Amino acid sequence: MGISTRRVSGKRRWMPPALAIMPLALATMSMPALAADRYRVDQDHTFAHFAVLHTGVSSVRGRMAVAKGSASFDAEKQSAEVTVELDAGSLDTGVKRLDALLASEMFFDAGKSRTVRFTGRGAKFKDGLPTEFDGELTIKGVTKPVKLAADRFVCQQVKILVLERFVCGGDLRTTVKRSDFGLDKYSDMVADEVRITISVEAVREE
């Protein structure tokens, strides 16, 4: 073990090794850790799409618009998080009578439980980008764990007209049982499994 000394008035005084490195240690401790980049979810390009089998013949499809959302991403640390709050009142299947039924108390009860919330964290990565997310889906106050696969996930600089910005996003898909959330009406005509794709586009905050 080396012995540290320091000169005082022309003489060397012995200093314990721990004290000798303390200033460096304190300086290191005081350096702030680099935080992950923060992103704002773009409401104009983020939606949740769903599809459910009807009468065993064809799929009924619809979508919900995002009310707000945020995300963070750090490629080096392989860290990614996303939170999206969807507006159940915006549900659109293209059939007004069906939209009214789904927004009613029989299903989403959009008058009382307007927010559908998804939170996810990157669980698997490839080449620094997430390929799978573990998260939670909340509908009508019921929260269930979900696992989403990223069909694609891209981070890049984009130019839209005269605007340039750095964007991350992709298509995240999963399958849930609607009965788990109390959406179990008409089970004789409509399948229990619902295929969901959350298309997310988020802009890095400067």
3D architecture notes:
Helix content is 11%, strand content 61%. The protein is mainly β and 206 residues long. The chain has a single domain, classed as Lipid/polyisoprenoid-binding, YceI-like (Lipocalin, Beta Barrel), CATH 2.40.128.110. Strands 3, 4, 5, 6, 7, 8, 9, 10 and 11 form a nine-stranded antiparallel β-sheet that branches. Strands 1-2 form a two-stranded antiparallel sheet.
Layout of SSEs?
Blueprint (H helix, E strand, L loop, with lengths): L3 E5 L2 E5 L1 H14 L6 E5 L5 E8 L3 E17 L4 E14 L3 H8 L11 E12 L2 E11 L2 E19 L2 E15 L12 E15 L2
Antiparallel strand pairs: 1-2, 3-5, 3-11, 4-5, 4-11, 5-6, 6-7, 7-8, 8-9, 9-10, 10-11
Relevant terms:
globular, 2 helices, 11 strands, mainly beta, 61% strand, 206 residues, 11% helix, two-stranded antiparallel sheet, 9-stranded antiparallel beta sheet, Lipocalin
CATH class division: Mainly Beta
User: Mind describing the biggest β-sheet?
Assistant: 9 strands, antiparallel
CATH topology: Lipocalin
Number of domains: 1
CATH level 4 superfamily: Lipid/polyisoprenoid-binding, YceI-like
Q: Specify the number of helices.
A: 2
Q: So, CATH architecture?
A: Beta Barrel
For the record, give the distance between the C-alpha atoms at the N and C termini, rounded to a whole number: 48 Å
